Amino acid sequence: MDSKQDSGKKLVALARARGWTPGAHRVEDSKKASQSYAPKTLRDHRLAIQKYQTFNSQRDSYLECTGHDPETSLQFGAPAPDLATVMDFLRFHAASGRGVITSRITVESANTFMEWFLAGFEARTGNVFSPEFRHKIYELSRTSLVEQGDLIPIKKEKFNFTKREFTLLMRAFWTMDDDDVLMHPRNKVQIPFLIWLYCWTGARIGAFFPKEKEGKKGLRYRDLRLVMHRSEDGTPKLLYKIDQRYVKNNKNPEHKKFGACTYQHDIPLFDDSGFLIAICLADGALDGITTGKLP
């Protein structure tokens, strides 16, 4: 035991002899840790810290509640605030801020602000908040602060995939060169069809295709129903119904399914039934029909 202690003392003495000083670069290293953020993010951190300083200055009982001097609460080495103080600061931010979607701040906006504050506080003081502490803040903002009316649990929808993007995507498949090296011919048909299914059903791809462990590939044709009927002008038109089995919380996918129906579109660019017929012909799934040519 004595030999191990002597060995440890020798290591410390050797390190000191070579210029090592405990904590000599602590402040410098802590500041460098925040330099990995983009300039805009660092600006957000500073704004959150400035609001925290305003929060401290308006609380007469800050010293009584936390036991820390407000003047030194952001100096390097200052202790991190406890959960109650951080949540009080979050309520202050919710009450003094103004939302973009509504007049009140949303949960997502508040949590983003808290991320700025926690990162800015760590850079200023060198103290790091634990992942459990962060998770507790985000959890309370989604539950307690919503129940008490401080925050609103709504999100702004992002419509990134509109009719314009869909049309451009479909045109890309229709105008693609017949080059089987870049893309397999089946994918040129199957991928647009899957995009169509997602757009008008909102279903996951796994709801239509077997998993790899099932040892099967392709569409589940037992979940497809094709019907030909005549429209009002007498021309034939295709309708098809597709069933989803592997949806969330479906405990009996073998006997319980959820169907959706659509029909043939007059414009070929937007006709997913044509893609479906092409896949069925390639797989030989149409009984007695092996070609798309009319007799």
List the helices and strands and how they pair.
Layout: H1 2-17, H2 26-33, H3 39-57, H4 62-66, H5 83-96, H6 107-125, H7 131-142, H8 144-147, H9 163-174, H10 185-201, E1 224-230, E2 236-244, E3 258-263, H11 272-283
Antiparallel strand pairs: 1-2, 2-3
Helix pairs in contact: 2-6, 3-6, 5-7, 6-7, 10-11
How would you concisely characterize the structure shown here?
Helices cover 47% and strands 7% of the residues. The chain has eleven helices and three strands, in the order ααααααααααβββα.
Beta-strand percentage?
5-15%
**Tally of helical segments:** 11
Q: List SSEs in N-to-C order.
A: HHHHHHHHHHEEEH
- N-to-C terminal Cα separation, in Å? 96 Å
Overall 3D form: elongated
Strands across the major sheet, in which order? 1-2-3
Q: What is the tally of beta strands?
A: 3
Helix content: 40-55%
Rg value? 31 Å
Give the helix/strand class. mainly alpha
